[in-house]
Amino acid sequence: MKSVNVGIIGFGTVGTGVYKVLQQFGNINIKKIAVKNIHKKREIENFNSSILTANADEIVTDPDIDIVIEVAGGIDPAFDLLETAIDNGKHIITANKELLAKKGSELFKLAKEKNTVILYEAAVAGGIPIIMPVKTILSANRITKIAAILNGTTNYILTKMAENNLSYEEALKQAQELGYAETDPTGDVEGFDASYKISILSTISFNKKVSIDKIYREGITKITAQDIKSAKELGYRIKLIALGQMLDNGKIDVRVHPMLVAKKHLLAKVDNATNSIMLKGYPVGEIVLTGPGAGAEPTASSVVGDLLVLASELEASDKPLPQSICHHNEIADQIEIGDTYNEYYIAINAGNNPGAIGIIGTICGNNNINISTIMQKGIKEDNTAEIIVITERSKESDVQNALKELLKSDCIKNIDNLLRVMN
Ligand code: HSE
After folding, report:
1. Which of 71, 97, 151 has most ligand 1 atoms within 8 Å of CB, for mutation?
2. 282 and 163 inside one domain
3. SS3 breakdown of the chain: % helix, strand, coil, rounded to 5?
4. Three-state SS sequence of 252-266
5. Chain-centroid distance, C-alpha 135
6. Cα(294) to centroid of ligand 1, in Å?
7. Does pTM surpass 0.85?
8. I need a labelling partner for 347 at 20 to 30 A (CA). Which of 10, 271, 285, 412 fits?
9. What's the CATH code of the domain at 361?
10. In the beta sheet, which residues pair with residue 32?
C-alpha cells in the first residue's frame, strides 16, 4: 500500500491514543507531532521524541505531509493552522467540534476550492460511528429526527444524581474527583459541547447549514434532587437531550436542553458517560447507536478510521470520493424555542391555600394547555406545597405566558422548574 505522511496537532489524551493505535498500520507514517510542551515526559514505549515540534506551522506547511490530524481543540490557533494546512493542499481530520460548529463553513469552502477534504467522525459522539454512516450508507434517507445524548459528563452527573439521590453540586464534585468533569465544567454542564455536536449532526442529516447561534441551549445546572425524584415517581429519567427535527413545513428545530425521558424509551436506559443517538428517517425507520462518546481509545477509533478511509481513497485516486466532500450550501430555516411544541413538566411551589390547584388549572386552560397529570404530596414544613404538572403537547410560548400569569397569582410562590418531556 502507498504510504501516507501524517502530521498530528495536539498530543494530549486523544493525540496519544491516535499515536498508539496508528502503530499497527505500516502504511501510515507519522512525520511530526505538534505539542505545547516539548520537554514533557511521554509514557509511550520506544517513542522517538525527535518527531515532536513546538511549532505547528512546521506541520501545516510541510510539503511532505499529506494529511493533518487536529486533536488540540479550541478555535485559536486551530482555525489559522487548519486554514494554512488546507491552503497548502492538505486533507484534514479533526475531532474539534467547537471549530466545526463555529467556523466549519469557512473551512469547508476553502477545502472545496483546494480540492481537499475534512473528515470529522471523532467530533460527534467520540467512538460511535455516525458522521460517515449518515453521509454514506444512510444517504438514501430523508432524515426527520435526531434525539441524542451527546455529552458524557452531564449524563454521568444526572445518572449519579438519580442513583444516589445527590444534589447537582454533590454529583458534579464526584464527577470532577473521578475525572469525568473538568475543573471548569461550563462547556459540558451548560450544554455548549452538546450544541456543537448537534449543529454538526443536524447539518449533515438535513443537508442544510444549521447555525450554532440559533440553537436554543439550556444546561443541567438547575436540575434539583427534587426534580429527579418527582420524575422517577412519574416514570421518567432526566437526560440532557440534543434534538434535531425537520418539520413538515421544511423548517428546522434544533436545541439542547434537559428532558424527562419516559423509562421505556431507549435513551432513558443510557447511563453514566455513555452517548446514544436515535435517528429517524425514511426509508430506514428508527435506528439507535450507543457507545463511548469520549476517551482516548474510542476517539482514536474514529480518527484512525477516517484516516484509513482517506488513505485508501488517496491510493485509488488523487480526487477524494464525493461523500468526503461537504456540500450543504443551503441555510437551514431554524425556528425559535417559543414556536416549538412539547409536553412539559412544571414544578410549582404554591402556598397552602384553598384553590391553588384550581388556579393552576384555570391559567393552563386559558393558555391552551391541557394538563395530563398533576401531583401534590402533602404540605411541606414551610407551609407550601410542591405541585408537579405534566401537560399534553403545547406551544412553548403559551407555556411561558402561563408561567408569567401563574407568578402574578398570590398563592403561587415560585416556578421551581420547567422541563420538556419525551415519551
Ligand atoms: N466533554 C465531552 C463529554 C467529551 O463529556 O462528552 C468530548 O466532547
Report:
1. 151
2. yes
3. 40, 25, 35
4. EEEEEEEEEEECCCH
5. 18
6. 6
7. yes
8. 271
9. 3.30.70.260
10. 7
The residue to which cell 463555529 is assigned: 102
| Mean pLDDT, contiguous 10-residue spans, the chain (423 residues) | 92 97 95 95 91 98 98 98 98 98 95 93 98 94 98 98 98 97 97 98 96 98 98 98 98 98 98 98 98 97 96 82 67 97 98 96 98 96 97 98 98 97 97
* 8 A C-beta contact, residue 417 and residue 345: yes
Cell numbers describing residue 390: 405534566
Task: Give residue 172 CA to ligand 1 midpoint distance, Å.
Answer: 14
In sequence order, what E strands does 38-101 have?
52-53, 67-70, 91-94
- Tell whether 114 and 137 lie within a shared domain: no
DSSP calls for 93-115 = EE--HHHHHHHHHHHHHHHHHHT
Q: What is the largest CA-CA distance in the chain?
A: 80
Distance 151 CA to ligand 1 centre (A): 5
- Nearest residue (by CA) to ligand 1, atom 4, is 294
Direct distance between the N- and C-terminal alpha carbons of the chain, in angstroms, rounded to an integer: 51
Exposure string over 138-169, b if 16+ CB within 10 A, otherwise e: beebebbbbbbbbbbbbbbbbbbbbeeebebe
Closest ligand 1 atom, residue 97 Cα: 8
- Cα dihedral sign, 307-313-319-324: negative
- Domain enclosing residue 103, as ranges: 4-126+296-324
Q: How is residue 417 written as a grid cell?
A: 422548574
Task: Count CA atoms within 13 Å of residue 390 on its CB side.
Answer: 17
> Within this chain, do residues 136 and 258 fall inside the same structural domain, yes or no?
yes
